[in-house]
Amino acid sequence: MDGRMFYPAIFQPEEGGFSIYFPDVEGCITQGDSMSESYEMAFDALGNILSYLEESGKEIPNPSEPQEIQLVKDQFLVGIEFNMLEYKKKNDSRAVKKTLTIPSWLNELAIRQNINFSQVLQEALMSRLKQ
Fold it and tell me: How far apart are CA 95 and CA 75, in angstroms?
């Protein structure tokens, strides 16, 4: 599995846009003025709540099968694709301090050449992880 999940969002047309909620994710409600903005707002709302649940050690709910969801007049379903790792890449740029050890001669050589250790480590990790 590649980490993607598809959460059904219920879109309710309103005057001037849409209200949106996720039947599987308690409290995940948002709105938008256009279909495009509504999708983006739904994605952001879903990401915020699922990230909070993960960071809090709480269970992330499984998405329902779309055919199991009952709609009322004018409502329609939109599948919101979500990938936690991709979401974090775009929205979580907090720095995490790491302590590492390198040979003294390598440290001196790198300092003489004004190498940014953090940048080199990030680039190397991203290259190794093919990100």
Answer: 42
In 3-state terms, what secondary structure has residue 115? coil
Q: What predicted TM-score, i.e. pTM, was given to this entire model?
A: 0.69
Cβ contact 14:3 at 8 Å:
no
CATH number attached to the domain at 4-91: 3.30.160.250
Nearest-angstrom CA–CA distance, 43 and 7? 10
SS (H, E, C) the chain: CCCEEEEEEEEEEECCEEEEECCCCCCCEEEECCHHHHHHHHHHHHHHHHHHHHHCCCCCCCCCCHHHCCCCCCCEEEEEEEEHHHHHHHHCCCCCCCCCCCCHHHHHHHHHCCCCHHHHHHHHHHHHCCC
pLDDT digits (tens, 9 = 90+) for 81-125: 998 888 887 877 677 788 889 899 998 899 899 988 888 988 888
Domain ranges of the chain: 4-91, 95-131
In angstroms, what is the C-alpha Rg of the chain? 21
